Structure formats: structure tokens, C-alpha cells
Amino acid sequence: MAFDYGSIDLGLKNPFKKEGAVTALRGIVQLALGIYLLIDSVSYVQTSKIAGWIFVFFGAFLLAGGLNALGKGIYAMLRYFVGRNHPTSLAYNFSKSESSTAQEEANTVAYSRQSIEEMLIGRKNSSFVEPIGFLARLLHSFMPKLLFMPYPIRNLMQRLFGAWVKTLIAIVAYAFVAFVSLSGLIGESGNTVFPVYSVALLFYIISVWRKASKPLNRRAELNIESLGTGTIVKVIIWSLLLPVAISIGLEWSLGSSNTSQSKLNTFIAALPALHTYLYLIGVFTISTLGTGLIAVMLTKRLKNTTPTTEVSELRENWQESVHPNEIFINLDNLVMANRRYKEVPNRVYQELDPKLNEQVEGKGDFSGKLIQEIQPRYKPMNLGGSFNISRMVALISGNVLFIIASLFSFLLAYATFDLYQASQLISASSLEKVTRAAGFNLFIDTLYSAIHLVLIAMIAKSFARLLTTAAHIFFAELQFESLLIYFKCEGTFTESKISTGTGIHDSTRSENTLVRSSITPWVIVSRIVSTTFAATGMRNLEHPRYIQEMHKDDAELASIRADVIGFLKDRESIASITSARDLGNASQIHQLNQQTRAYSDAPQTALTMDEQAAGVLQKEEEPEK
After folding, report:
1. Strand partners, 478
2. What is the reported pTM?
3. Distance between CA atoms of residues 619 and 625, nearest Å
4. Cis bond leading into 324, ω under 30°?
């Protein structure tokens, strides 16, 4: 959507300044670590080119992450460009003044013209869709009001709930594996390879939370993700098949290499402990704290929603002397235009296209309808101090975990260099020779140190993304309040003629065709609360906007009715002279007509008197004869 400048501010401010500042600080730390490794790589190049490239690789990795975080943070703190056309319309906007903008936002509108009409007439909200999948329905059964949350929040909670379900199922599956392995059902190798299952459990749980922490795609604004039982079934099946498969594979490997079970046990016993249970405890602790923070924010957000679907409605019949077209012209050009917010044109979702069906003898019927939305105004969300504190704690904690992951990646560079040096001391090929090699213990210790660094970095980064994603979603939500108006009018009309000024002495006459209309309007008004999720960059507010609440507005409905009725009652059916010059001309004509009539009457009266006088004289003279 193009930026349309207007001198009247719509009152929308940048919601990402705090988030951008924290992200920029994290980027500076990551950038410093990367630059240090790149500078330090120069001294290691003299020892080995491979060592130098190791430090260059890790330094470039940290440098790229730092530059990315710093750039995003600074970008988020820059001026937030909001034009006259923001936010996105609910449906395609047919307003003549917004034709270019309507084409650009056509792919991001959340509704169609028909769906908005159905929502208003049917008193329903199509934004609240049914959850898909068993686990999703289970979650919404535990939290019924989650159904009324915007899609990104619902998807975030479904991911979080799914991660917890997968984690618990993995633990149950681990119990199945322990039973199958330690009870001897898969043979002697069960006790030997059981620690491998603990490591597999750890990596699986890390992968579960890593997947759940991925940033929500913008497509998540358009639909609800499914959450079914397929994952549970897969985990249970693999928990039963994996021990058998590993046992068969291990026995085959030992047989083909002529290695006894005792030698393998000796080799495994020589390996240092990975402390899998400590990592699992750490994952559970961080996930519980992170879930608690998100739960506080969600609870406050749930309390702020009232999923009302109410409208104010008017259905009457008016008998007025007015042409039907004038009803629609007045409604569109005066009644609706006078309700603009900060002179921004209304969003037109149904164009006013009146249809007149004229029949014989000046009779006919008419119909027409429109759907318009007044320019949305920003509505602050006051969710309380605990919500703001939880959001900031989640944001800061996430960025701190990002820094911890970067620090361990920084240390991993040196551990990788030590691992490379230790690997040079091992030249044997068989398992027995490797265990007797001089640098074997050093290599194993270094390898385990690198594995610990990788695990800690993975865990820290996974929960860092989870917390920052959750904080970003609650920072990005913006609510708007607007008036949605539906007007439908049907009726019949008849024509008749009326004439004035037809007296015998009138010189000015007015003939008019009077249209008598029977009007049946259907007006629906709803004050809606809609929400969208902002972003940074060129498409900061060009995202779907969803209706969350629909409230009655009887006062606005009464005001619209009064405006329309006032126009109808103030109509003039008889044409008259309103120009001062025309009035003067008509007055002169009237005076001239009076003078003409006076001149014509005077001689006729004098002649009659002479004739009467002559008749009297004639009668008096007759007897003398």
C-alpha cells in the first residue's frame, strides 16, 4: 500500500520503539563478539590455515547475526510512516478516491462484501473460526475465550500447547523404551544402548521447542493452524520400534566387526557422562518460566475481549413526495460524508447503485443499498501494568538468551579449534587402537565440551526466539474503532402533475411533476472493534484487519434517521422563483398587467355612461312627438 501523505495526523505512533532499542543493544553485543573473532583469526592463521578459517567462519556467523539484529532494532525505532489510507480496509474498497490503494491491498483484505453483509444482517462474526484437530479443540476446551483471539495469538498458543503435549508424550514414550530395554525384551544390548535413548530424548525435546519457537509466518494471519493427534501416534510408534531397530542394528554391527559386547561396554564406560538429565531439567525450567510469562500476557488479553455481535437496526415505511434517486444522492453525498473522521473518505464496501424500474403511467419501483465504514480511529489497549511488565520481561529475557547463545557460539569457535588439534593426535583406525591412542582422552574431552556448548546454545536460542516472538506479537497488535453502516432501501413511486398560478388574472404559472414515493428503508449500524498486527518496514500496517467486537450504536442510528427525515421534510415540490432579478422581473410584469387592465377598464366604463345618458335623452324626447 502506497504512503499517502495528509497534513491531518491519524494518531498512530510507532509501537516498536522499546522492542527496537532492546534488539539493537543485543545486536551490538553480537557484533562485538564477531569482530573479536575475526581479529583473533589473524593470529591463528600463522599456526594453521584451517584454524584461521574456523575463526573466520564463527566470526562471520556472529557478525551477520549482530548486523541483522542491529539493523532490525534501528529500523524499528525509525519514524513510523502512516498515510491517510491506513489501516487496511475490511473488504475491497470501491471508493473513487481510493482506487489505486484498493488494488494494492486487494490481496490482504480479510473479508468480502458478501461476508460483511452477512455479518451485519445475521448478527454473527465470521472471524471466529472453529479449531482444527483434536489437540486444538482440547486447548480451546480448556480456554474457551481463546476462540475470540486474533489468529496470530491463537496460533502461538496452539504451538506452545503442542510443544508441551509432544514433550509429555516423549517422556511417556521414554518410559516405554526404558521398559523394553531394561527388561531384557530386546536382548543383552538393551542395557548397553539405553543411554543413547536418553540422548535421543534430549535432542527430540530440543527440536520440539525449536520448532515451536519459529517466528509466525504472515500467512498465520489468514488461517488457524491445525493441531491433531498424528504427532502423538508417531511418537508412540517410534518409541516401540526404535529400541528394536537399534538393537538389531547394533548386533549386526558387532557381528560384522568381530567386536564382543564386553569390549563395547568397556568403550562406552570410558566415555564421559553427557548429563542428559540436567539438560532436561534445564529445558523444563526455562519452558515453564517462558510459558508462565506468555500465560500472564494471554490472561490479560483474554480479559480485554468482549465478543459481542450486536447491531442497531431501523425498519420503517415513509410516504414522501421525493424522487427515489434523491434519497440515495442525499444519503451518499451528505449524510455519510458528514460522518467522516478527520476528513478521510469513508471505506465503500458496497457501491450505491440505485435501480429504478419505471412502468406505465408514471409508476414504478426502486431499490438500492450501500455498505460503508467510517475511517477507523486508533483505540489504545489498556491491559494493565502486569501485562506491560510481563511483555518487557519476555522481550528482555529473550534477547538475553540470544546473547547467551552468542557467547556459547563464541566459545564454540575455540572448542572447535581444540577439537581439530586433538584429532591430529589420533591416527588409528580400529576401535581398540583408537582407545589406546595417546590423544584419545583429550579428543573425547574436547568433543564433549563442544557438544555441551552446542546444546546450551541450541536451548538458549530456541527459547530466545520463543520469548521474543511472543513479545513481538503482543507489541504488534493494534486495535481500531469504527462505524459500519448498512443501508438498504426499496419502494414504489407514482407521478402526478400539480399546477399553481392558474387564476384568470395570474400572469405567472408553475407546472410541476410530483413524484410520490413509498419508501421502506432498512438501516443497520454497528460500532465495531477491529484488530491488526503491525510490522516494521514498507508494509507496516498493510496486513489483514479482523473484526473482534460488534456493538450497538442507537444514537448514531437515530442521528442518521434524523438527517434523512430532515432532508425529506424540507423538500420543495413546487418550483418557485428564488432569484432577486427574476422576482423583480415578475413584479414588473405584474405591474404592467395591472396597468393594462386599468387602461382597458376605464374607456369601457365611460362609453357605457354616454350610451346610458343618450338613452335617457332619447326616452325623454319621444313624448313630445
Report:
1. 532
2. 0.79
3. 11
4. no
